[in-house]
């Protein structure tokens, strides 16, 4: 590309940093946007500008929204005494897609990780403990990933909440919907067998 | 360049969008890192968890390259995840291996003891004393071991119940005299290679090894802090043992 296309080059370079896109696919996306300037490029630019101005973390739970308090925390119908603890905002959005949980959330912002030097102070664990004390919480549901780091974090949180008089539960582990036993690892099969229930 | 063998995964981090870099502790090559293509996929990610034992094939154009691993699972040890104490132990073992072991340095005895320790943790066999022995061996193999053969003051080989924090040598009850309160306690099981389920003995052993990890090993590694996972294990032992 020549120097006349500097602005487009910068856009391609920025797009290439997005998840799922490389330099080649970013170039295709930018070309597509330019071809659909009126119906795609301009609205996208406006929308990006608006979100850049308004997006912020919810002061209560750490979810991302456009107000100081996210929709979930601001909804009085969701004050049912349950908090679901998730690692990241993407996990919160996944739980909301399922539309089963009717309580509120708490986003930790990561998990304890010796390798990455993430300790309890780097996560929003102290905020969780104070929320449990302040919000009349009866149950904390730990919806953390079934990885070593995720479960280490879950046990750490359970320890922190041990003397606060709340029920601390975690998501079940076992055979996923549509899963075939033949493809499961032995740990998952054992966990599923231990959590069996009457049919 | 290529080699194949077995190892224990001690660390995993995402690499790009689909791959992972794993850190494995192997018998023949010591601690060794490499890329697993597709390691972040739904199929592979559950297999690449710390503590899992895997068969490995490593390939690279040059010896000093990071290289690529082909990984086959041998033993997942994923049952540890439902055991609070076991998870603390696994975290401490993996983080200390990453903290202390130089890359590609062969440590065969420590490898064998690591496998034995992880098997104990996975099998829910009492393992706290074995963990303390493992830390002793770690210090020994890395050149910061203690001399527990005889008393540094009197030369006797009986009633060795202290260790000098300055020299790392054992001190007998008689040799300690009025200096006893400045010495580190040496639990009997640690000196004799026995097992123990005595909470105070185990905590004393971990205080002893922890002292030398902090005062001797950490300065040699650029004064990096000892991984938090070890402190979390000790807190868990204090609470639940």
UniProtKB/TrEMBL annotation, chain B:
Pfam families: RecO_C, RecO_N. The keyword DNA damage applies. Residues 1-76 form the DNA replication/recombination mediator RecO N-terminal domain. Keywords: DNA damage, DNA recombination, DNA repair. One of its GO terms (biological process) is DNA recombination. Belongs to the RecO family. Coiled coil: none annotated. The keyword DNA damage applies. GO terms for cellular component: bacterial nucleoid. Involved in DNA repair and RecF pathway recombination. NCBIfam families: reco. The gene is recO. It comes from Paramylibacter kogurei. This is DNA repair protein RecO.
């Amino acid at each position: 590309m020549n120097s006349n296309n500097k602005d487009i080059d910068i856009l391609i370079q920025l797009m290439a940093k997005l998840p799922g896109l490389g330099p080649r696919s970013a170039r295709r996306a930018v070309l597509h946007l330019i071809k659909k300037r009126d119906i795609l490029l301009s609205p996208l630019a406006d929308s990006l500008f608006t979100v850049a101005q308004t997006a912020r973390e919810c002061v209560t739970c750490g979810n991302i929204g456009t107000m100081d308090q996210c929709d979930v925390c601001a909804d009085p119908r969701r004050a049912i005494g349950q908090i679901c603890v998730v690692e990241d905002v993407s996990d919160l959005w996944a739980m909301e897609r399922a539309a089963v949980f009717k309580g509120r959330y708490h986003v930790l912002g990561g998990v304890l990780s010796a390798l990455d030097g993430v300790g309890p102070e780097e996560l929003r664990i102290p905020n969780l403990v104070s929320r449990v004390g302040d919000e009349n919480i009866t149950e904390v549901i730990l919806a953390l990933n079934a990885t070593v780091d995720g479960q280490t974090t879950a046990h750490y949180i359970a320890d922190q909440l041990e003397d606060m008089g709340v029920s601390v539960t975690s998501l079940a582990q076992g055979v996923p919907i549509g899963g075939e036993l033949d493809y499961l690892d032995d740990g998952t099969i054992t966990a599923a067998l231990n959590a069996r229930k009457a049919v | 360049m290529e080699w194949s063998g077995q190892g224990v995964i001690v660390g995993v981090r995402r690499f790009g969008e689909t791959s992972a870099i794993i850190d494995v502790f192997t018998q023949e090559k010591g601690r060794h890192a490499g890329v697993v293509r597709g390691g972040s996929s739904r199929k592979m990610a559950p297999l690449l968890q710390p503590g899992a034992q895997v068969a490995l094939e490593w390939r690279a154009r040059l010896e000093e390259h990071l290289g690529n691993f082909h990984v086959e699972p041998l033993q997942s040890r994923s049952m540890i995840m439902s055991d609070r104490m076991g998870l603390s132990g696994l975290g401490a073992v993996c983080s200390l291996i990453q903290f202390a072991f130089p890359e590609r340095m062969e440590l065969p005895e420590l490898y064998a003891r690591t496998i034995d320790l992880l098997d104990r943790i996975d099998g829910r066999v009492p393992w706290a004393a074995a963990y303390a022995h493992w830390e002793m061996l770690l210090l020994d193999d890395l050149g910061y071991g203690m001399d527990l053969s005889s008393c540094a003051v009197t030369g006797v080989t009986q009633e060795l119940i202290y260790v000098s924090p300055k020299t790392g040598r054992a001190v007998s009850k008689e040799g300690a005299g009025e200096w006893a309160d400045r010495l580190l306690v040496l639990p009997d099981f640690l000196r004799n290679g026995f097992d123990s389920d005595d909470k105070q003995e185990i905590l004393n052993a971990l205080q002893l090894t922890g002292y030398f990890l902090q005062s001797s090993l950490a300065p040699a590694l650029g004064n990096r802090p000892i991984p938090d996972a070890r402190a979390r294990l000790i807190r868990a032992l204090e609470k639940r043992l």
